[in-house]
Amino acid sequence: MIENHLTLDRLRQSPLPVPEEGSKEQRGTVLVVGGSAEVPGAPLLAGTAALRSGAGRLRIATVGSVAAALAVAVPEARVIGLAETGEGAIDPADAQARLPAVAGRCDALLVGPGLSADAVAAALSRMLLAAHPKAALVLDAGVIAGLGAQAEGVRSCGGRAVITPHTGEMARLLDIDRGAVEADPLAAALRAAGLLGCVVIMKGAKSWIVDPRGTAWLYEGGGVGLATSGSGDVLAGVVAGLLARGAEPATAAAWGVYLHGQAGRRLAERVGPVGFLAREIADEIPAILREA
């Protein structure tokens, strides 16, 4: 295991793909799968962040009852309205029928924002892992807890997957006490990376990025203000956008954490250490990318 402190100088040693003149398709297409009747905004935050990170096209698949409103809120996206369960969640059967064809035309999939950690989330992640294993994947929020039972499916991605757990999600994934994760988040991240064969972003006041080989990077954090509702959806969207542009998973994860953190620092200076909103984070990303 090699530990590195994540700095801009280190990141410049693994530069992001440079956008070339040409069509939006050349910068990649992101599909965000998530949201529910009660949490319709999570895929909005994630999808906007993917575009702010330079992805060329955005698709959002969510519950039909909020699809029209989401399409108006994010006019840059194609929004796919899916049938929903009685509880207002995505109906996995309709997703199974309609999403594989959409996913097959995308470069990066983000699954999880706005999903609860339940059977629906597990069914969606299982279906998409089976339907399109060649795409780069970000597995976030509600799907993370059930990945232990889907380890073979994640490993079949060949290292092209990134997971973004916070402490509680990591504890459920590994079936260990939350206190054990809090006591040694790096050990938990290394264990998850080994189990799933993927890149792990272990979120916290200090974030760890670990790849399947056991290489680890430590980011000291963007400030307490980033501990706010929706912030994790933005981070997942940033990583998905960078993957769609063609960045390798570990590179996308490291740059994503840095960009998210630096956006928090800028907002803390301009707005205040706490009180800025997750929806404001993505707006800072283009300028940070330009200066990097």
UniProtKB/TrEMBL annotation:
InterPro entries: CARKD, Ribokinase-like. Residues 7-292 form the YjeF C-terminal domain. Residues 1-12 have a biased composition (Basic and acidic residues). It catalyses: (6S)-NADPHX + ADP = AMP + phosphate + NADPH + H(+); (6S)-NADHX + ADP = AMP + phosphate + NADH + H(+). Its EC number is 4.2.1.136. Catalyzes the dehydration of the S-form of NAD(P)HX at the expense of ADP, which is converted to AMP. Together with NAD(P)HX epimerase, which catalyzes the epimerization of the S- and R-forms, the enzyme allows the repair of both epimers of NAD(P)HX, a damaged form of NAD(P)H that is a result of enzymatic or heat-dependent hydration. Signal peptide: none annotated. This is ADP-dependent (S)-NAD(P)H-hydrate dehydratase. Homotetramer. Keywords: ATP-binding, Kinase, Lyase, NAD, NADP, Nucleotide-binding, Transferase. (6S)-NADPHX binds at residues 42, 114, 166, 233. Pfam families: Carb_kinase. Residues 1-27 are annotated as: Disordered. One of its GO terms (molecular function) is kinase activity. GO terms for biological process: metabolite repair; nicotinamide nucleotide metabolic process. Belongs to the NnrD/CARKD family. Its cofactor is Mg(2+). AMP binds at residues 203-207, 232.
